Amino acid sequence: MFVTKANVYDIRKLDVSTIKDDVFAIDTNVLYWMHYSRCNETFDGYQLEAYPDFLEDLLNNENRLVTTIYNITELLYIIERNEYDIYCIQNGKIKRKEFRNILSERIKVKNELNTVLSQINSIYKIKNFNIEVLGLNDFVDNLDSHKCDDFDYLILKYLSQNDISKIITDDSDYITMENICVYTANNKAIHEAANTGKLVTG
Fold first, then answer.
1. Which helix (H) or strand (E) holds 10?
2. Rounded CA separation 184/124 (Å)
3. How many H-runs (helices) and E-runs (strands) does the chain carry?
4. Which residues neighbour 185 within 8 Å (Cβ) at sequence distance 6 or greater?
5. Can you tell me whether residue 8 is helix, strand or coil?
6. Confidence band (pLDDT; 50, 70, 90) for 131?
7. Which of 166, 160, 169 is nearest to 189 (CA)?
8. I want to staple 193 with a disulfide (CB 3.0 to 4.6 A). Which of 6, 53, 102, 198 is the partner?
9. For strand 166-168 and strand 7-10, is the pairing parallel, antiparallel, or unpaired?
10. Domain 7-195 is classified in which CATH homologous superfamily?
């Protein structure tokens, strides 16, 4: 069984007016719900409101938001995949490579990605760093102590080493990482944190 190591905050119960001039890192899934205009065409859940509302409140209260080049890379891939899924729902199933060969759809994807990148560049400080072999070794060596994939692990390690410990995410795996604070609306993460005394209230 994996232990909850992060301090966990339920973003739906926070008084954001008390949070000012702080720094928060934004995970890929939150970027997706915040900036991708068609995410609701294949997804329906609490995330569509909880995370955009929280980020907007943070920005209105003069907090700073950051993300990494790796989160953005993952986001672009996910958006293209979602555009492909939408096309298949509306037009019938085809292979991904066939979808990429349809110029009109390629232009739609391009326009969507340009809009998303423009928004991200205007709102976030983008952190760029090199993923080195030693970092991958560390990920493998500690694989039995956390539930993150390699990119998430290395992103969180980089952020923590650069004094950015507050992460906004819907990924419950993040709570198994130490030295971070997870801000989430994910009920599974919140429940596990409450059961282990890691849910921060008040």
1. strand 7-10
2. 19
3. 8, 6
4. 10, 11, 12, 46, 47, 50, 51, 54, 170
5. strand
6. confident
7. 169
8. 198
9. unpaired
10. 5'-nuclease (3.40.50.1010)
The DSSP-derived string for 49-78 is: HHHHHHHHHHHHTT-EEEEEHHHHHHHHHH
The percent of residues above 90 in pLDDT, for the chain, comes to 83
What is d(CA 124, CA 65) in angstroms, rounded to the nearest whole number?
Answer: 5
137 burial type by CB count under 10 A (0-12 exposed, 13-18 middle, 19+ buried): exposed
pLDDT of 141-188, one tens digit each? 888 888 998 889 899 999 999 999 999 999 999 999 999 999 999 999
Query: What φ, ψ does residue 167 adopt, rounded to 5°?
Result: -120, 130
Tokens of 184: 């989430």
Residues in the chain: 202
* pTM of the complete model: 0.94
State the maximum Cα–Cα separation within the chain, in Å, rounded to a whole number.
Answer: 53
What's the half-sphere exposure (Cβ side, CA atoms, 13 Å) at 21?
A: 0
Rounded to the nearest integer, the mean pLDDT of the chain is 94
What distance in Å separates the CA atoms of residue 105 and residue 99, rounded to the nearest whole number? 7
What's the CA gap between 24 and 194, in Å, rounded? 22
State the amino acid at position 143 in one-letter form. Answer: L
HSE-CB of 93 using CA atoms within 13 angstroms: 0
